Inverse folding.
């Protein structure tokens, strides 16, 4: 199927809405100065077909979408031992809450809340040069080099007090093996990956292919079982405190980031990435969600 | 497709496991004395085909599975106004916790935790004879009369202190319109509906048919939009504090009850009900989950 | 010492402030219609000297001040066994919070928060006709009959949903031995005792006399040890979420009620009761606190 | 009055109990290796009389007792502005809990829980060389130089993850003005002050003298009003989660530390310091509490 006309149509419908609502993340200058009036959409099918529209080639800070890739690496390293340190259930609390962490003795509810992703980063660090491994994975998935935005990483490090609190809190429960500074250095860097919609649609490609590499002739990224787990986690926990609403209105496994990107998976069919910097009250891209709703409405591609 | 051989096969695989783990709910005598060593499975396709195996015709107390049907009725009455009183997000807390209710001023997180179902019951009561309406709905869906187990309802009323606490707590926030006793009388009765796997697979049939009645020639049960919402809520919130794991291991919208039943939906294909009284630590039927895992493994029918 | 001129002076200083702030409790009509512009003060020395000023003879609803007397009775019945069900530490949460109760499995933090007083009422009920026992105690302490305000008790029973929630919640943890309705009937009645400042200053007299009856020739009310415990609880937990500030600004063991009364104890010297219906944001009588501050400033009688 | 025989008597009664219970704080090596079987007691009257017994001259790590002195300095600098950042009420949660801090947006409940003391340290830092100021205060109060235990301070800095979490959490709410590292450097140093019972009884002397310097001829340490506030905070919040029990069993304003010291104040009469390293389950010195109970029982000096 040729998705290009569909994406053009969605771009056309979304573009007039740019600037009509939402707020660009402003907690660090490098994010705050991203112009709000941008929108991109890209997809890649299981067979390797691609389509894109709007600002789909513009790189942005992928932020929490990076949690998909570090989780994939950690599951590869540790298998089910990963779950000794991290839960797999929705949290019911804001993504950066400490309350749940206290009542569950430093074990984060799932790998997509900040505490969980920090715990994942800790596990990766124990197994070698995690930054290099992550960059290598991203380059392999995208077929081209991917880099960190050094300014974004430095800003997060300079002002990410809540994340320092989370990491030190887990450390106080003996739930981090590496030094807090090292763990957060990885975490802040993974969040600072710069990628475009086109690149993210490609990179997430293994999630609609039961874990096989997005391109043929390469080693599998992960197993079918792990892929299924990741997709399930995306659907139940991937969009902060809006997971229930996203499951209803979009009905696809999604992972969002405060940079305004959202990656979505149609199992066995395609992966999709939308991007628009202005966020709604739940911290998800306002027009990104709208675009995914249009996509699902127009294609009927939804898991429910 | 003829599912009968498949269900027979699953029954054969599950039956040897009966009695090897899990605990029958014991908080009221009428549930505690149900023999643990029972297992039933039944399904109904969108086209009306049916299959069943094991103790599929044995009636049991559907308990929280009833929340599916009262939610359907309340959405029919109130549309999106329902969500003024009830959230749609996973709770991250035990199904009968009061903590979340306090911090969110008496608004339950979703309609499948106890507080949420009690709030749904309150809304139904405001619109007429809710018990009669529920019985009429169940009879229409099943094509035969369905009744309450009076002993179970009376036991719940006599010992359901946590539910009285939840209801009075919501009432103290002005979030229940009807008298606590009346609301809980409905709630305890809906939980005391007695149905078999065969009946539940039929009754849930509208959930795989975009809301259309399980049988042709009858008025729609609800809209496609509402059906989608219910399925999404089942997947994210339908199995207490195991929703994340169920989404992974089964990958279908499910709603469980402490009577040991679980209803699952394969959108556009079929509905399924399994039953076995012994529960795992999360309050879900141990062998019911196992049977659903087998079903998904053997058919590949899963949303992920 | 003749305290009469001092109380007259305080009355004179407080009276111009009537009507300038605070809010009369309005959650039940019988409290809401009490005229705000009233102020009374009364004291009784260990030696039996009395003084009073303003509306000291006007009866009012003693509300939570009653917790002093039921606690005294329960300690008499049960000694230190009472503390198996009730803690003795400040709560750090609003007086009617359920959160703490959930995390501590139904054991209230102290006998002066609502849950704690309800637990005390339950223990009293197990030992006989608690209402009659309470009335007999009050009559003995005051030297005249004291009665319940039936309208207040009925209103509390009709609208006290939060208290029903607390009691059912404790019952669900197996922490109440008697029926919720019976326990709350006692609780709502004790809160509905009608007494004047003069009567309360007399009734609390045993608290400045190491537990001996306020009048000579009568049996002791409680032991020195229990008296000390009660005074310590008053200082640390007696004024809702203002205990820290009251300890500083007044420096005496105090127990307040939402009817606007506050009882204070100067150990080994005197007991004091002030009353003015308008409450501050912490639920304590605004001018009652002010009057106690004046008393302490003028006499230097404070424990610090 | 000559207190020497009394302290000798208490020492004689306590000494046989050494080694029979409690646990020395073990979270850092420098504390863990302190021999448990030590006990000291010292007092100083308002008039300057002193008495001591047992290991009263042995220096130990004063830990949280230091919060008395930094609070005194901060109140001197800021007066009531201090309370914009720090509450004055008991917390009802463990001394190092983050839950309360989250629900109250980074404002600690009182200056004696860790978060509160860290907030106090932040305020002191904003006004100059706080470490030097603290050392100067301690030297003036004791009449001799007092120093930090560098090993203890370094150990706390190396392992105090919970305190890093608390500080970063407050910083994330904008409730710390200075860098987390600088604030905690002060905090860890204040906790690492090494003093003996004799020195602490002297140093706290202003608390029984309405704020006047323990020795004549020196400038006042603080005002009567502030002294009263500090004493009230000690009584309601000074002994972690045992404040209610300490108020009952001892009935004096107390501040304890995990080094095993407890300072107590008898307003207008004397200050007292006891020390024994083994702690009870609430983190207070087991035999220190016992010794204070004996002191109160033998002298009748208690505020209730």
């Amino acid at each position: 199927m040729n998705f290009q006309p569909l994406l053009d149509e969605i771009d056309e419908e979304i573009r007039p809405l740019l600037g009509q609502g939402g707020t660009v993340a402003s907690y660090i200058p490098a994010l705050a100065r991203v112009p709000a009036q941008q929108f991109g959409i890209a997809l890649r099918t299981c067979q390797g077909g691609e389509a894109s529209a709007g600002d789909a080639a513009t790189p942005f800070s992928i932020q929490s979408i990076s949690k998909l890739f570090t989780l994939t690496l950690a599951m590869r390293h540790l298998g089910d031992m990963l779950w000794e340190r991290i839960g797999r259930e929705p949290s019911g609390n804001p993504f950066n809450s400490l309350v749940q962490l206290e009542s569950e003795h430093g074990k984060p509810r799932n790998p997509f809340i900040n505490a969980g992703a920090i715990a994942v980063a800790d596990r990766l660090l124990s197994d070698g040069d995690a930054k290099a491994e992550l960059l290598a994975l991203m380059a392999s998935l995208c077929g081209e080099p991917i880099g960190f935005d050094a300014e974004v990483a430095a800003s997060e490090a300079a002002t990410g007090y809540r994340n320092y609190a989370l990491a030190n809190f887990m450390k106080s429960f003996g739930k981090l093996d590496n030094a807090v500074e090292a763990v957060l250095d990885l975490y802040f860097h993974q969040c600072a990956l710069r990628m475009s919609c086109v690149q993210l649609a490609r990179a997430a490609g293994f999630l609609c292919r039961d874990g096989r590499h997005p391109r043929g002739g390469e080693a599998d990224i992960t197993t079918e079982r792990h892929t299924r787990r990741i997709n399930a986690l995306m659907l139940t926990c991937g969009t902060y405190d809006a997971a229930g609403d996203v499951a209803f209105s979009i009905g696809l496994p999604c992972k969002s980031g405060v940079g305004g990107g959202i990656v979505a998976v149609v199992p066995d069919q395609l992966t999709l990435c939308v991007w628009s910097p202005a966020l709604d009250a739940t911290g998800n891209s306002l027009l990104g969600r709208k675009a995914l709703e249009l996509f699902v409405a127009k294609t009927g591609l939804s898991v429910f």
Q: What stands out?
A: The CA atoms of residues 40 and 54 of chain A lie 5 Å apart.
